[in-house]
From TrEMBL:
<comment type="similarity">
    <text>Belongs to the peptidase M48 family.</text>
</comment>
<feature type="transmembrane region" description="Helical">
    <location>
        <begin position="210"/>
        <end position="226"/>
    </location>
</feature>
<dbReference type="GO" id="GO:0004222">
    <property type="term" value="F:metalloendopeptidase activity"/>
</dbReference>
<keyword id="KW-0378">Hydrolase</keyword>
<keyword id="KW-0479">Metal-binding</keyword>
<keyword id="KW-0862">Zinc</keyword>
<dbReference type="GO" id="GO:0006508">
    <property type="term" value="P:proteolysis"/>
</dbReference>
<dbReference type="InterPro" id="IPR050083">
    <property type="entry name" value="HtpX_protease"/>
</dbReference>
<dbReference type="GO" id="GO:0046872">
    <property type="term" value="F:metal ion binding"/>
</dbReference>
<keyword id="KW-0645">Protease</keyword>
<feature type="domain" description="Peptidase M48">
    <location>
        <begin position="101"/>
        <end position="301"/>
    </location>
</feature>
<keyword id="KW-0812">Transmembrane</keyword>
<feature type="transmembrane region" description="Helical">
    <location>
        <begin position="167"/>
        <end position="190"/>
    </location>
</feature>
<dbReference type="Pfam" id="PF01435">
    <property type="entry name" value="Peptidase_M48"/>
</dbReference>
<protein>
    <submittedName>
        <fullName>Heat shock protein HtpX</fullName>
    </submittedName>
</protein>
<keyword id="KW-0472">Membrane</keyword>
<keyword id="KW-1003">Cell membrane</keyword>
């Protein structure tokens, strides 16, 4: 009798869980149907796109301010950096970008980065670059960052990540009712069989896990595409800097000096910095191409001139 009572209790728990999950799935399906039934698909897609772009842009603008604050960056005014700004004015006169404000900060690694847009840009320079690099090398590095501002690379990357999060989130929301139904059926079968923990190994449990892996694979694939685009833009910025300065070797030397002075200290901002990746996975996930490849392209460009420039669009 005790065993029969236990089995009846477990069956009751299983049916209760099934009812709970099916109820939650029904509510989710009702909400989704109500939302999507009011608008046609093009309208929903258009609204999602607009919201993604707006929130991505706001995230980029406020993120720039937060990043500068986190690095304790200090702006260099034109009185203190008259020579620096004269050179920047000369460079920007040859490019479709306004002269940015230069900030000095203590970064994790010797480097420079561009933030903002072509009309309202900022270049952050690690303090060590002023003694680490020669004037020609520093100018080449700054021109590389100006090229990023000219092409709005930072903003495009932020919008791409915003679109990625929106797409994956939308897929998760659409799959949620189905996941709830599958989970409810699996847990109910586990309790009815007297082995509640075994349902994850059942066909129903494997179906749910497979759906989760599919969504994760989608996220990874899209992330790799965004990172590949980022590496492509690094090559484009190298080409643009070599074109403007007319001295590819100065940029190559500057990149090498930065690499040699860098130590493998990792933190939250590490993906923003120039560093070498040895593993294949590290290269796929890196926002920057391998340093050897970048330097080799610049040396080849200096040796053979414009004939060796890779056909990567600058704008």
């Amino acid at each position: 009798m005790r065993r029969l009572g236990l089995r009846l209790l477990m069956a009751l728990v299983g049916l209760s869980l099934l009812a709970l999950y099916l109820g939650a799935a029904a509510v989710g399906a009702f909400v989704l149907t109500a939302v999507f039934a009011r608008q046609d698909l093009p309208t929903v897609v258009g609204l999602a796109t607009v919201l993604t772009l707006v929130f991505g842009f706001l995230s980029y603008r406020f993120g720039t301010v937060q990043l500068l604050s986190s690095m304790d960056a200090v702006a260099i005014d034109r009185d203190r950096g008259a020579g620096l700004y004269r050179r920047l004015d000369w460079l920007t006169a040859r490019m479709a970008v306004d002269t940015p404000t230069v900030f000095v900060a203590e970064m994790q690694l010797p480097n420079a980065m561009a933030l903002g847009t072509a009309r309202n840009g900022v270049i952050v320079v690690d303090r060590s670059l002023f003694w680490l690099l020669s004037p020609a090398e520093l100018e080449a590095i700054l021109t590389h960052e100006l090229a990023h501002l000219e092409s709005h690379d930072g903003l495009v990357q932020t919008l791409a990540y915003s679109a990625l999060r929106t797409l994956v989130g939308l897929v998760l929301v659409l799959c949620l009712p189905f996941v709830l139904v599958v989970t409810g059926i699996g847990q109910a079968l586990g309790w009815l069989s007297g082995r509640p923990a075994s349902w994850t190994a059942s066909p129903v449990g494997r179906l749910r896990d497979g759906l989760g892996r599919a969504v994760a694979l989608l996220f990874v694939a899209l992330t790799l595409l965004v990172r590949a685009h980022s590496r492509r833009r690094e090559f484009a910025a190298d080409d643009r800097a070599a074109e403007i300065t007319g001295d590819p070797l100065a940029l190559a030397r500057g990149l090498r000096r930065i690499e040699r002075a860098s130590e493998p200290v990792w933190g939250l901002r590490s993906p923003l910095y120039v560093h070498s990746e040895e593993s294949r996975l590290g290269r796929l996930l890196s926002t920057h191409p391998p340093m050897d490849e970048r330097v080799a392209r610049l040396v080849e460009r200096a040796t053979h001139g414009e004939r060796t420039a890779t056909a990567i669009p600058i704008r």
